[in-house]
Amino acid sequence: xxxxxxxxxxxxxxxxxxxxxxxxxxxxxxxxxxxxxxxxxxxxxxxxxxxxxxxxxxxxxxxxxxxxxxxxxxxxxxxxxxxxxxxxxxxxxxxxxxxxxxxxxxxxxxxxxxxxxxxxxxxxx
Length: 125
Ligand code: 5GP
Known about the structure:
This protein is an alpha+beta fold and 125 residues long. 24% of the residues lie in helices and 20% in strands.
C-alpha cells in the first residue's frame, strides 16, 4: 500500500526497526548518518537501500527538515556505498520514491541503488 509522504514519521515502520536492529538485515555500510543494506526483494543483480539514521518519512521531509550535516552525510554515504560496491564504472541508478503516486511503500526515506545490468528505459510508458 503506497504511503502518503506528508504523514508524520512512524517510529514503528520496518526500516526504523532495521535501524534499531530489531529485525535482521544484510548490512553493507554504516556511518554516523546512514545505514545501507540489501533489499529483501531485489529487482537488479545488485539492489541496495540506503537510509538516513534520522526520522524522515521521505525525500521531501528530509530535504525540508534535515540538517546540512545530515544531508551532506547521507548523500556522501550513497556515493560511498556505490563506489565500494564497484558500481561506478559499469554504472548504477538511484531511485527515491516519494508519496502515493511514486509507489513508496516504506515511510522512512530510502534511496535504492540498482546495478549489475543495463537498466533500460527510465520508466515504462
Ligand atoms: P519503495 O517502494 O518504498 O521505494 O521500496 C521499498 C523497498 O523495501 C522494496 O524494494 C522492498 O523490497 C524493500 N523492503 C521491504 N521490506 C523490507 C525488509 O523487511 N527488509 C529489506 N531488506 N527490504 C525490505
